[in-house]
Structure formats: C-alpha cells, structure tokens
C-alpha cells in the first residue's frame, strides 16, 4: 500500500509489503502447511520441554545443560519469528505485512541469529574445556563464566541487529513493495528503497557475512581440536563423546549453511534461497530436542550427554 508522505508532497511512501510466498500450487501449499505446522508444534514443544526439565531437575544444573537450555530458548524464538505468519499466509491470496512488522521481523531475526552464534561458540568452548582440560573444568566453567556467556550473547545480538537497522530504518520506500519471499529478509528489503543502496548492501553483506563465516570457522577449528583430543581417549569414552559432538556439529553446519549462502552469495537462486530459509526457520529449531534424545538413547542415561564433562 502507498500513502502520501507527511509533508504533503507528491512522493508516496510504502506502508506495507506484499509477499509472493513460496508457491502458487495448491497441492504444494497443502503439503507445506502440514509439514510446517507439524515441525513448528514439535519444535515448540520439544524446546519448551528441555527448558522445563533442565530448570526443574537439580541433576541437570551443569554448565552444559545451562547453555543447552538457553539454546532451546533461542530456538523458540527462531521458530516464532517467521513460521507462524508463513503458515498463516500459505492459503491467503494477499500476503501482506506492515512496514513496522517487517522492521520487527528483521530486528528479531538478527538478534536471535547473533545470540545463537555466540551460544554455539560457548557450547564448543564448554566441550573443549571438558575434554582438553578436564581437571580444570568446574573452575573454568563456573556459574560466573556461564552468565558471562549469556550476557555477552545478548549484547552482541542486540548490537549487531541495531547496527544493521540503524542504516536501514530511515531508507525511503516509495514503491515497489513486493518481496519474493515469505518473510522480511534484509538483503531483499533494502533493494526496494528508492535510492541507490549498493554501498549499504555491501556493508550489510560484509557485516553479516563476516560474522557468519568467522563464527563458523572458529567452531569448525575448535571441533577439529576436540575430535583430535577425543581420539586419544579410550574407545568407550571416545564413542560417547563423539556422539555428543556429532550432534553439536550437525546443528552448527545446518544453522550456518543457509546464513552463509544468503549473506555471501552474490546472486542467490530464488527457489534455493526459499528452500534454505524454510529449512533454517522450521527444521533447525527441532534439531536440538532430536539430538538430545539420540544422545540419551545412545548413552543409556545422563552420562550419554555429560560424558565430556566427566572425563
């Protein structure tokens, strides 16, 4: 929708944006509705259950589970920022979102993304200390250190998001107002501005791309060091630790893969871009509960998840 600007000039401003959505095929829309609804409910219930169990069970009041519960809390946000509206819009002819709603989506997407990156690094550090410096684990991973990681994660997430929006929120939008996606993502959003945004696009790509790629490589290097250390342990301890690490590594790869593609690929394919977005917002939040269940099954009890900290 276009409305007259406040100064009464002939220039118009965009008050809402129109999503083209995922597909026009009714059959595919129905499939996506069932798929997205099922995974959304499952991820919300699974992550909520993790938070409840870790909070209520004194045996799980350890650094690893503390970080895990916070990751589940963030995954609740990942599921809730875009999935409900995507599901609601699947069968709507006019998929619209207000300008303020679009800005809010962008803000929370980048806050949550920044917080989750730091949390994943914190969890990798926790595993590194548990396996490589087991005698100093409780000293290094003290309650103060855990709180520091959480505070740092939120400060970095909020700062990252506010810096991004500071350059975007006052851009002039006078049409068009069509986004070929199902949520407000920053790269496509700024392309609709009525001014040349090449430098701004480069800055945002460098900012988000550098953070994503940098965090990813830090995590990969840390896990390589951990795996090399684990291989020196006994076969029983090694297999349990590798089981836990494999869950962490899977989450890291599946979380960072779509982010790196969106913010570093110069000309992304629209269908592939949408597929990765669905994967990141619908499937990734469910990985945490699924891998926890797998680890518990393989370990037989809590030891399956706490092997590294017990070395």
Q: What does this entry look like structurally?
A:
The structure is a single chain. This protein is mainly alpha-helical and 311 residues long. The chain is 73% helix and 5% strand. The chain has a three-stranded mixed sheet. The longest helix has 34 residues, at 99-132. The radius of gyration is 21 Å and the shape is globular.
SSE topology:
Blueprint (H helix, E strand, L loop, with lengths): L1 E3 L7 E3 L1 E4 L6 H31 L6 H27 L5 E4 H34 L4 H4 L2 H24 L11 E2 L6 H6 L6 H33 L4 H30 L5 H30 L3 H8 L1
Write down the oligomeric state: single chain
Counted beta strands: 5
Tell me the strand percentage band: 5-15%
Biggest sheet statistics: 3 strands, mixed
**Global shape:** globular
Structural class, by secondary structure, is mainly alpha
Helix content: over 70%
Report how far the terminal alpha carbons are from each other.
61 Å
The Cα radius of gyration reads: 21 Å
């Amino acid at each position: 929708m276009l409305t007259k600007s406040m100064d009464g000039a002939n220039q118009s401003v965009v008050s809402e944006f129109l999503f083209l959505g995922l597909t026009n095929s009714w059959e595919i829309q129905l499939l996506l509705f069932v798929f997205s609804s099922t995974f959304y409910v499952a991820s919300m219930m699974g992550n909520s259950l993790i938070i409840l169990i870790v909070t209520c069970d004194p045996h799980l009041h350890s650094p690893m589970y503390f970080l895990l519960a916070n990751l589940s809390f963030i995954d609740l946000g990942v599921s809730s920022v875009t999935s409900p509206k995507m599901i609601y819009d699947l069968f709507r002819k006019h998929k619209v979102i207000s300008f303020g709603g679009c800005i809010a989506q962008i803000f929370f997407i980048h806050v949550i993304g920044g917080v989750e990156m730091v949390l994943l690094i914190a969890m990798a550090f926790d595993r590194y200390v548990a396996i490589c410096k087991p005698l100093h684990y409780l000293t290094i991973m003290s309650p103060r250190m855990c709180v520091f990681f959480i505070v740092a994660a939120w400060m970095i997430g909020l700062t990252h998001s506010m810096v991004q929006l500071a350059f975007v929120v006052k851009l002039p939008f006078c049409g068009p107002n069509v986004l070929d996606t199902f949520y407000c993502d920053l790269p496509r959003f700024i392309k609709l501005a009525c001014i040349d945004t090449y430098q701004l696009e480069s800055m945002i790509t460098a900012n988000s791309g550098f953070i994503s790629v940098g965090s990813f490589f830090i995590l990969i290097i840390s896990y390589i060091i951990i795996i090399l250390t684990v291989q020196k342990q006994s076969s029983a301890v090694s297999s349990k630790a590798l089981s836990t690490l494999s869950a962490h590594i899977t989450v890291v790869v599946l979380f960072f893969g779509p982010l790196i593609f969106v913010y570093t690929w110069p000309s992304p394919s629209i269908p592939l871009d949408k597929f990765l977005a669905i994967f990141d917002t619908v499937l990734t939040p469910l990985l945490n509960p699924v891998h926890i269940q797998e680890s518990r099954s393989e370990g037989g009890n809590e030891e399956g998840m706490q092997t590294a900290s017990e070395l």
